[in-house]
């Protein structure tokens, strides 16, 4: 079958199934099966490439799965995230483009620390999922000592795969399997020494079930729902963990839903150990992350405040 004909058929089927970006999805699935870039695929379609029966059948089967709203990233087994192609699949949250802005803010902070003479900053990613944030930071700031905490055993397996392909992964990234609410014990003597804490925790309120089938049925429940009132239980647990993990003067940033920006900023401002609370906008201008700094007091004072 001619590639052009096959693509047109795939686009029509995907559009009929209500897929929001039928052409992009058809091209990405065909590119993946044929081992071509999207640019090469477009050229081959124009020049009348004939696709073998086996490849045409494989593409058609994947299109059928996509029509049943299986996420594109599960079908190709990968998700682009900053400079990386992360391996993803069932059991792990698919990284989102807005989280790339959080990584950008982290890199800015790491560069500022470099200017202050901190050459090997220590950073921890709480709820690492596929390892997206931790792997991107390790790839783009190789001097950083990166730690990642994750509770789901399935997600840990995906994160491990994504860390193992980093050039110097053994020296750069340490994965800790456990509950972020217990991260001070999990990280032991490193607690109180981190320069940066970053997190994209589960934050969806229980009564706001996502409308997108791909999210509702394929992202793990543990990755979605924050628990407690307004989905804020885990985000607030991240704030508490950050207070324990950071060194005095250390900085944390957390992604959240736009509606949670106010309550999270208020919560952070109410913590006696936190200062310089700041809300960050994503590329579309929405308030999607909050950062704060652990007060630059002596640890003894901090211990007193905590008592
Ligand atoms: C929204 S996902 C974000 C994943 C990844 N950081 C990203 O940005 O793509 C939240 C992650 O937190 C993990 N998680 C949920 N509860 C946790 C807990 N109590 N301790 C550690 N990780 C947890 C989930 O399994 C999931 O991988």
Automatic annotation (TrEMBL):
PROSITE patterns: N6_MTASE
Family recorded in the similarity comment: Belongs to the protein N5-glutamine methyltransferase family. PrmC subfamily.
GO biological process, any: methylation
EC number from the UniProt entry: 2.1.1.297
Entry function: Methylates the class 1 translation termination release factors RF1/PrfA and RF2/PrfB on the glutamine residue of the universally conserved GGQ motif.
Signal peptide per UniProt: none
HAMAP family named in the record: RF_methyltr_PrmC (MF_02126)
Binding residue positions for S-adenosyl-L-methionine: 127-131, 150, 200
Encoding gene, per UniProt annotation: prmC
Domain Methyltransferase small: 119-203
Organism ancestry: Bacteria, Bacillati, Actinomycetota, Actinomycetes, Micrococcales
Name by which UniProt lists this protein: Release factor glutamine methyltransferase
Binding site for substrate: 200-203
Protein's organism: Nesterenkonia lacusekhoensis
Keyword Ribosomal protein assigned: no
Domain of life of the source: Bacteria
NCBIfam families: hemK_fam, RF_mod_PrmC
């Amino acid at each position: 079958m001619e590639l052009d004909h096959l693509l047109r058929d795939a686009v029509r089927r995907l559009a009929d199934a209500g897929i929001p970006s039928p052409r992009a999805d058809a091209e990405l699935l065909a590119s993946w099966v044929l081992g071509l870039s999207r640019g090469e695929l477009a050229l081959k379609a124009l020049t009348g490439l004939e696709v073998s029966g086996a490849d045409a059948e494989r593409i058609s089967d994947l299109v059928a799965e996509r029509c049943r709203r299986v996420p594109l990233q599960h079908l190709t087994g990968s998700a682009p995230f900053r400079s990386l192609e992360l391996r993803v699949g069932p059991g792990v949250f698919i990284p989102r483009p807005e989280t790339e802005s959080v990584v950008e803010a982290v890199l800015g902070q790491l560069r500022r620390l470099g200017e202050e003479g901190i050459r090997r900053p220590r950073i921890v990613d709480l709820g690492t999922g596929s390892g997206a944030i931790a792997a991107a930071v390790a790839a783009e700031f190789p001097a950083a000592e990166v730690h990642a905490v994750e509770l789901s055993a399935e997600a840990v397996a995906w994160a491990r795969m994504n860390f193992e392909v980093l050039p110097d992964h053994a020296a750069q990234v340490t994965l800790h399997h456990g509950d972020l609410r217990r991260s001070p014990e999990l990280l032991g003597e490193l607690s109180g020494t981190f320069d940066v804490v970053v997190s994209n925790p589960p934050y969806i309120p229980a009564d706001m079930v996502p409308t997108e089938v791909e999210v509702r049925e394929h992202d793990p429940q543990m990755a979605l729902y924050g628990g407690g009132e307004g989905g804020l239980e885990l985000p607030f647990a991240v704030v508490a963990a950050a207070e324990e993990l950071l060194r005095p003067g250390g900085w944390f940033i957390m992604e959240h839903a736009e509606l949670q920006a106010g309550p999270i900023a208020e919560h952070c401002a109410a913590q006696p150990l936190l200062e310089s609370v700041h809300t960050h906008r994503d590329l579309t201008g929405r308030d999607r992350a909050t950062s704060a700094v652990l007060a630059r007091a002596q640890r003894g004072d901090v211990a007193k405040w905590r008592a």
